[in-house]
Amino acid sequence: MTIALTDTAASADGSHQLKRSISWTGAFWVASGVPPLVLFSIGGIAGTTGTPAFAIWAASMMMGFLQSFVYAEIAGLFPNKSGGASIYGAAAWVRYAKPIAPLSVWCNWFAWSPVLSLGCSIAAGYILTAIAPDATSAIRTFTLFSGSLGPVSFSLNSAFFIGAALMLGTFAVQHRGILGTARVQKVVGVLVIVPLVIVGVAPLLQHGVNWSNFQPFVPLAEAYKPEPGAWNIPGWTLVLGGMFIAAWSTYGFETAICYTSEFKDPARDTFKAIFFSGLLCIAIFVIVPFTFQSELGLAGMLETPIVDGSGVAAALAHMVGGGPIIENALVMLMILALMLCLMTAMAGSSRTLYQGSVDGWLPKYLSYVNHHGAPTNAMWTDLGVNLVLLAIACADATSFFFILAVSNCGYIIFNFLNLNAGWIHRIDSGHIPRPYKAPTFIIALGAVFAFVNAVFMGAGAKVWNPNALWAGLITAALIIPVFFFRHYVQDKGKFPAQMLEDLQIGDAGGAMPKKAGALPYLTLAAGVAVVLIANAVFQF
Predict the structure, then answer these.
(1) Count of CB atoms within 10 A of residue 255's CB?
(2) How far is CA 161 from its chain centroid?
(3) Closest CA to 418 of 114, 87, 112
(4) Structure letter (DSSP) for residue 214
(5) In a structure prediction context, what are the per-residue pLDDT tens digits for the chain, which is 540 residues long?
(6) What is the number of alpha carbons within 13 Å of residue 305 lying toward its C-beta?
(7) Residue 309: CB partners within 8 Å, gap ≥ 6?
(8) Which helix (H) or strand (E) holds 147?
(9) 492 burial class (0-12, 13-18, 19+ CB within 10 angstroms)?
């Protein structure tokens, strides 16, 4: 396997390609949009779990960090691929069940892509509040059209149009390629991460830790109600719901390895990108929720503006002892933080679509790259889908959390498949040199965590919406007919030669060795069983 280290923008056939233009620091700054994801669900997790909320964030973050070493290893196997861990993991599963490979890619995409719509809806809310503080003003109440769609509502209101403008701005920045994106992310990242750390640390230095706000250490008896519960089945269901939704944020720094085909030196840059991104996330996801809870207490965390996210900036200002000026500054911080998330989401999710197309799993049109080295067709697809989701997210909090829960079902499925891809690659591709090789116990722990995550999904998705699990599974299955059309109709049952070359298994018609035998199939069956059992056992 050779590593394409060219900086040219066009291949021999005249088509444009992704460019090797960044080091690990560039990927680090692109991934710096992950820490602000804590602001998406800090109120929701506190509102559903109560005093264990800070521990849920810390436990989820440590799981995500340990899992990332598995992803760092398998990413090193594919220095010419982009798109992230789902692409590298799909290469393990394609030997055993062709539809599982695109399922991994698709689930990762519909997990990450809604960050665009969800982030834009929150940012639009802050902008509207800033320009029209009166909730009854014409601009705040304007709605062009609204309705319902199954379990959710949708609304073309003022928040939708402001959110759409923010989304288009994100597209414009990324249209110029990954190097330009990384430069913008570096500036915005410093403006966001530094104040976020200050907000996390300053209140502890000023006021100390209010330990009474962490007692009693039991889940709520009922979500969004202040009465403490017990460590019984309903209590554990709420806690597992917290672990389920926290994973959407805390595991997200794995997006730092979406850019291996754009690294100048993938053997060196890949591990450093995900490792240092993980360290940054540990600091933010552990400190900020802890300080948040220490300052607000259970009653404060259960207030409606905290749960729905609209009052988080005001709460942060109160935590550092600031007045209206500080609060307005923190509103700007929130908007910048959300823009940082949007940039990270579009950069990673569009490259997932692009590489999935190049490898023969997703529609061909997604493999187009412009002369700047940006996968613009994939970016337009992200934009179009998220405009629809934005209309839903802007309708009400129930619809917002429904999107979040459904997208996280995809994220858990992706993590299940890719954590198990670690040991499959060890068995099937043990002969391929690895720039970074994780300790064997980490590979084994990753397989265990795959099933722990399956428990989170089976038990916890219902906490956010009773239909979330089934909607997530149906959404995941939508990729199967798409893949069948691409593979069996367009490609006549053969994968592109480059994809198989990356696996070092010969030409497009070559046989794929399956050294793992029946173990991958048993793993899939066991994963489905764990989800269904957890869903049946854990009830309110």
Answers:
(1) 28
(2) 24
(3) 87
(4) G
(5) 444 444 433 333 444 555 665 677 776 776 676 777 787 778 888 888 999 999 999 999 999 999 989 988 888 787 766 666 777 888 889 889 888 988 988 898 888 788 888 888 888 888 887 788 787 888 888 898 888 877 788 899 998 999 899 888 877 766 555 555 566 667 777 777 777 788 788 888 888 889 999 989 999 998 888 888 999 999 999 999 999 999 988 998 877 776 666 677 777 777 788 888 888 889 889 998 999 899 888 888 888 777 776 677 777 777 777 667 777 777 777 777 777 777 767 776 777 788 788 888 888 888 887 776 677 788 888 888 888 988 998 888 788 888 888 999 999 999 999 999 999 999 988 888 888 899 999 999 999 999 999 999 999 999 988 889 999 999 999 999 999 988 898 888 888 877 766 665 444 445 567 888 899 999 999 999 999 999 999 998
(6) 12
(7) 39, 40, 43, 44, 122, 125
(8) strand 143-149
(9) exposed
Phi/psi at 222 (5° precision): -150, 140
Cα distance between residue 365 and residue 377, in whole Å:
7
SS (H, E, C) 90-116: HHHHCCCCCCHHHHHHHHHHHHHCCHH
Which residue carries 């239909």 as its tokens?
467
**Amino acid at site 482:** V
Which long-range contacts link 328-331 to residues 24+ away (Cβ below 8 Å)?
A: 328/130, 330/195, 330/199, 331/126, 331/129, 331/130
Sign of CA dihedral 448, 451, 455, 457: positive
φ, ψ of residue 277 to 5 degrees: the values are: -65, -40
- Please tell me the distance from the alpha carbon of residue 447 to that of residue 445, in angstroms, as a whole number: 5
CA–CA separation, 85 and 71 (whole Å): 6
Write the DSSP assignment of 445-492 as a string of letters. Answer: HHHHHHHHHHHHHHHHHHHH-TTHHHHHHHHHHTHHHHHHIIIIIIST
Q: In the 8-state DSSP scheme, what is residue 220?
A: B
DSSP 143: E
Give 156's strand partners: 145
- Report the alpha-carbon distance of residue 193 to residue 234 in Å, rounded: 36
The two tokens of residue 256 are: 């730092």
Query: In angstroms, how far is the first alpha carbon of the chain from the final one?
Result: 53
DSSP 8-state code for residue 22: B
What are phi and psi for residue 10, nearest 5 degrees? -135, 145
